Amino acid sequence: MVTNKAHQRVAKHERKRTTSDVHDGIEYNKKIRKINKEFLEKVTPPPSPSDATKSSDGGSEPDVLPTDPACDPDHPVKITFSDVSSAAFNIKNGVLRTPCNKSANLSKLLDMELYFKKEYLQVTGSFKERGARYALSRLSKEEKERGVIAASAGNHALALSYHGQQLGIPVNVVMPVFAPLMKIGMCRSYGANVILKGDNIGKAKEHAMRLVAEKKFKYINGYDHPDILAGQGTIGLEILEQVPDVDAVVVPVGGAGLIAGIAVAVKTLKPHIQVIAVESDTCPSYTEALKAGKPVMASVRSTLADGLAVPMVGGNALATLEGLVDKHVLVCEESTALSILRLIEMEKAVVEGGGAVGLAAMITGKLPELRGKKVVTILTGGNIDTTVLGRTIERGLAVDGRLIRLEVVVSDRPGGHLIRDEMSFVEDTAIVLYFL
User: Where does the record place the Tryptophan synthase beta chain-like PALP domain (predicted)?
Assistant: First the structure.
C-alpha cells in the first residue's frame, strides 16, 4: 500500500545519516552556540538589585521564586466534564467554531474516513485561543486590573495577547531573546507588553515568576492551568457534534493539556471512542511520564514540531488523563515533514509541525487498526515560519522519493566546454544538480 511505501521511504531516509553528516552537524552547532553566547553577552543587561537578595554576611543569594499555585505537581487538579461544559458556554461567542471536514483524497489514500478539525483557522492560528479565552474570563476583578503574565515564544503568547486585548485585560509576555520576530511583533500589535529575557523558555519563565512576585500578576500556564485544559476540551465537544459516529480521535501531544481536555469530553459522552496520543520522538515528555508514573524532564531535540517541544508534561494534565488514553505512538521528523507536504498538496492547508503529527502516525502505518474506521485528527495550528516551511517541503519531497541529491565529479576544463559536454542531458530530464 501507499502507506507502507511511505513508511519504507522514511526508514530509508533515516538510515542515510552518515558519520560525516553528524560531524558536520556538531561543528555547525558549536559555531552557532559560540555566536549565540557572544550575542547574549551583548544584549543581556547586568543583574539588577531586585534579581538577588542580600544575605546577612553581605553576600548575595538568589531570590526564591514563587510557584504557580494552579499547577502544583504535588497536588494535581483533575478537570471534569462539568469544567469543559462551562468553558464551552463561556467562550462560544469569543472563539471560532472551526470546521471538521472529511478529506476525500487522504481518506482514499489511507483506507479510512479521515476528518480534520481545522484549529489553524482561529484568528491567531491555533487551538490555544480556547484555553486562553476561558482562563482570562475566569479572573477576578482585581486580577483583571493587575493583568496576567506568561512565558511563551509561540501560540499561547499570541492567543493570550489577542484575547487580553478583546477583554481589556493587560497581558505581559516573557519570551526568550531568540523568539521569532514575527511573533514578537504580532503580540505587540495585540497590545501585549513583550519582555525579552533569557536564551530559552526556562529562563523566560524564571523571569516571569520573578515579576509575579514583584507586580502580583496572575501567571497563566499555557498547557497545564485547569482553565486552559477545560478550554481546550471544547474541541472534543465540537468533534462529537460534527462527526457524531466517529470511531477514534487522534491528538498531538506536547504538554498534554490539549489531549487532557479532549479526552475528558469524549470519554464522558462516548467511552467507546478511541483517544490516541501522538508525540514527536524529538520531545517524548508524555512517554517518559508514563514510564515514571509522574511528570519528569525529558530530553528535547530541535524539531519541526516546535509547538510540542515541552520537556515535561503538566501535572494536572497527566492526572486528568489517567485511564483515558487508549494508545500512544511516536513519530519521526521525516514523517512529520511528509505530512506537512501531504496537507499542502492534498488539502491546500499550511500546518505547523505540531499540527501534522497525527496525520504522520497514520501515513507511516503506526495506527493500522484505524483502517476502515471513521477518524478525526486535530490540525492544531498553522504558525510555521516561512523559512522553515521551505526546508520542510524539500525534506518531505526527499522522503517521498521526489527530490534527489547527486554528487558528481567533473573534469577541470573551461566552463563553456564543461557545460556543453557534461550537462547537456539536463534539458531532457527533471534532475537538478547541486555541486557540493
Answer: 92-381
Task: Tell me the CATH number of domain 131-219, given options 3.40.50.880, 3.40.50.2300, 3.40.50.1100, 3.40.50.720.
Answer: 3.40.50.1100
What was the pLDDT predicted at 66? 79
Return the C-alpha cell found at 208.
516571569
For residue 402, which amino acid is it? R
- Across all residues in the chain, what is the average pLDDT? 86
- What is the DSSP secondary-structure string of 123-177? TTSBTHHHHHHHHHHTS-HHHHHH-EEEE-SSHHHHHHHHHHHHHT--EEEEE-T
Q: How many CA atoms lie within 13 A of 224 on its CB side?
A: 24
pLDDT in tens, 206-247: 999 999 999 999 999 999 999 999 999 999 999 999 999 999
If you count them, how many residues does the chain have? Answer: 436
CA distance 65 to 294: 23
Q: pLDDT tens for residues 176-196?
A: 888 888 889 999 999 999 999
What cell numbers appear for 360 in the block?
504522520
Cα dihedral sign, 239-243-247-250: negative
Query: What CATH number has the domain spanning 71-128+230-399?
Result: 3.40.50.1100
Question: What type of residue is 420?
Answer: R
DSSP alpha helix (H) spans, 251-373: 257-269, 285-292, 315-321, 333-342, 353-363
**Residues 336, 92 contacting (CB under 8 angstroms):** no
Q: Is the pTM of this model over 0.85?
A: no
Torsion of CA 182, 184, 187, 189, to 10 degrees: -70
